[in-house]
Amino acid sequence: MENPLTATLAAAHAAPGARQVSAGRAAAWLTDLLGLLFPALAAEPLPDAAAVATALAQSAEGLAALLAPLPGVSTDGSSIAEAFFAELPTLRVTLLADADFQAANDPAATDAAEVIGTYPGFYATAVHRMAHALHRAGVPLLPRVLAEVAHARTGIDIHPGARIGVPFGIDHGTGLVVGATAIIGRYVQVFQGVTLGALHVAKELATQKRHPTIEDHVVVYAGATILGGGTVVGAHSIIGGNVWLTRSVPAYSRVYHRAQVEVRGAEGPVEGLMFEI
Q1: DSSP characters for 60-114?
Q2: Which residue, among 18, 217, 7, has the nearest Cα to 101 in the 3D structure?
Q3: What local confidence, expressed as pLDDT, does residue 277 receive?
């Protein structure tokens, strides 16, 4: 007798759109493209212009193949892939500006080459800018898959719908969350554990702006949480670590969280340890 689960799974695998996007293929395509754009991220540099041209053509074909099974995409996905690759020169210039900005603001960075080759924040930003370009083109699902590749690798979760100006810098970045309708201006730097989120999570709000706007030249330090679609952080502001912000602040604001820390000393060893929780 046939196992009912076998029949159910066979039907699921045979259904239209059952394999709309292969996460593994998408990750492999992304890795190859980033290595093509930035030799520091490549397994090995390409030897000459002919090899670069061949790699670009193969990458475009790979994107078209990823797009082809998606609903609403033409049978081969070639027109979207062509438009995406036409945008690549501008995208690469944008990412170089991101790397320069991070190198200029991070005392630990030797130069932009180090940022490109080793910084998880740069990797997440690069993937986001690619995913966002596909999102703007109306591509379903694939932008989210690419965002999750970066999320899994770096711990940085940026929705492809978020609009991020140029240049942009992420320092460390682990635990950073940027929501779908967030808007981030130019010359903005954020640190690890920052959340640009929504005040309310409800399905009926899906078409509304739910996430904050961060204007130009803002720094958001570690652990800060900024919530709400109507919340605007004015230009040239500094948001300190662990701040919880749900209302707008004007330009040139300095917003800090005050914590009281008590340190008790002793002249010698004490018997036992007492903790107050």
Answers
A1: HHHHHHHHTTSTTS-SS-HHHHHHHHHHHHHHHHHHHHHHHHHHHH-TT---HHH
A2: 217
A3: 42
Instruction: For tokens 């670069």, name the residue.
Output: 52
Q: At what angle do helices 78-105 and 23-37 cross, to 10 degrees?
A: 60
Which residue in this structure is represented by tokens 């130019």? 186
CA distances (Å), origin 102, targets 6, 47, 95: 52, 29, 11
Q: At what angle do helices 78-105 and 49-67 cross, to 10 degrees?
A: 120
Both tokens of 269, joined, read 């060893």
List per-block mean pLDDT (blocks of 10 residues) for the chain, which spans 277 residues: 80 72 92 96 93 96 91 77 96 98 96 97 98 95 97 98 98 97 98 95 82 98 97 98 97 91 70 49
| pLDDT, position 96 | 98
Neighbours of 55 (CB within 10 A): 16
Whether the ω angle into residue 167 lies within 30 degrees of 0, i.e. cis, is yes
pTM for the full model? 0.90
